[in-house]
Amino acid sequence: MFSLAHITRNLLLAALVAAPGLSLAQVPPKKLPTYDCLRGNSRSAHCEQLLRNYWQHEPAIRAIAVHYGLEPALLMALVAIESQFNSRARSPAGALGLTQVMPDTARGEGLQDPKVNLYQPELGLATGAAYLRKMWFEFRDWELALAAYNAGPGAVRKHKGIPPYRETQAYVPMVLALYREFAWADAMARASK
User: What pLDDT is attached to residue 16?
Assistant: First the structure.
């Protein structure tokens, strides 16, 4: 029988070491730089930091997801893919924090001083959760809501579906696959109580 920690470790590592824009299914395992992490055979600094980040932010992710009417497993998956649970993450495009929200988007969600506050875990999580919920209410479809979160709602409207951008085409199935894994791990944890 697997422990929740074992399940969590393996699914986190499997999802997080993939090259940006590619799902793990598209990458031969031995080509991944942290293949030993995927197999659970490594205690590398990268693996250990990722797990510390996860356990540090997991309670807040769950609480904020519930507050915004989202499934915790979905917000957990989004944060895993967006930032690897690193609250100081900054993308080349300028997205910030755990949920990798752009400062202009955060301002639109009412966040003051987003270049500072998106790095605050609870504020960044709340902003990302509010924006994801907003995308859900606009599109009423999780694939489209996630595509809009990643590429912007204008791109989803323009293409009348998931935009044909390589990053977005890979992002949506990766978040949904990891969501299913987190939901399964949650169900297993509840069943073992």
Answer: 46
Whole-prediction pTM = 0.81
Which listed residue (82, 143, 167, 181) is catalytic?
82
Q: What is the pLDDT of residue 1?
A: 34
Which residue range(s) make up the domain with 163?
A: 57-191
Largest CA distance in the chain: 48
| 181 in catalytic set | no
CATH of the domain at 91: 1.10.530.10
12, pLDDT greater than 90: no
Instruction: Flag whether 128 is in a domain.
Output: yes
Question: Is 9 a member of any domain?
Answer: no
